Amino acid sequence: MKKQGARTMLNRRNRNGLFFLSVLLILCGNLVGCSGMNEDSKDVSLSAVEESIKQAVSLEEMQKGDKNRLKKLYQIDEKEVEDFVLYTATSNVKANELAVIKVKQADQAESVQEKIRERIEAQKRKLKDYRPKEFYLVERHVLKANQAYILFVVSEDAEVIEAVFDEALS
After folding, report:
1. If DSSP codes are grouped into helix, strand and coil, which group holds residue 142?
2. Which residue has better confidence, 40 or 13?
3. With 80 as the cut, is the pLDDT of residue 124 above it?
4. Strand arrangement of the beta sheet that strand 142-146 belongs to
5. What is the C-alpha separation between 121 and 110, in angstroms, rounded?
6. Which helix (H) or strand (E) holds 66?
7. How far apart are CA 18 and CA 24, in angstroms?
8. Helix (H, G, I), strand (E, B) or coil at 124
9. pLDDT number for residue 78
10. What would the pLDDT profile of 26-58 be if each residue is shown by its tens digit?
11. Is 129 helix (H, G, I), strand (E, B) or coil?
């Protein structure tokens, strides 16, 4: 009878241990699952955003830019940028620009936007008396941030591109 009482005690300990282990695993799973990003931030591939924009509007009259062009136009240090897509006009008499930038940290978005605003002002001064149609496009630019993502557009299709950007990040 002593052996059976000992077995019952062991079974109870095993069940309690399994119950405790199960609860612990569930809690750990919840912590790991919830610790990544909050629901508002979404990691979006800029190449996917670029493809969506290309499907919505034609970028054929623009050329793709690299990090040197990004630095030259906006004085944005590559240390601030995690990824970007840049298109500019093929001619300096055109104002078309498209930049989708993902900064490394969301708190850098404002300083990057300020650098883009400086570019906007420079373009306005350059085009005001010389190219009224292009000046009008610069006046109607879109500059906005969503978390760590920044959109800057000077284009006749700015509203369409903005809608694609918003959709991609929603």
Report:
1. strand
2. 13
3. yes
4. 62-64, 81-89, 97-103, 149-154, 142-146
5. 17
6. none
7. 10
8. helix
9. 81
10. 443 444 444 333 344 468 899 999 999 999 999
11. coil
- According to DSSP, the β-strands at 142-146 and 149-154 are antiparallel
Q: Which residues of 149-166 are buried (b: 16+ CB within 10 A; e: fewer)?
A: bbbbbbbebbeebbebbe
Q: Cα separations (Å) of 126 from 78, 81, 120?
A: 26, 27, 10
pLDDT-based confidence at residue 2 (cuts at 50, 70, 90)? low
Classify residue 98 as exposed, middle or buried by CB count within 10 Å of its CB (0-12, 13-18, 19+). Answer: buried
Q: Which long-range contacts (CB under 8 A, 24 or more apart) does 30-34 make?
A: none
Mean pLDDT of 62-88: 94
pTM of this structure? 0.75
Q: How many of the other CB atoms lie within 10 Å of CB of 100?
A: 23
Furthest-apart CA atoms within the chain: distance in Å: 104
Instruction: Please give the structure tokens belonging to residue 42.
Output: 């979404």
Cα 19 from chain centroid?
Answer: 43
**Three-class secondary structure assignment of 6-57:** HHHHHHHHHHHHHHHHHHHHHHHHHHHHHHCCCCCCCCCCHHHHHHHHHHHC
- The token duo for 52 is 């969506």
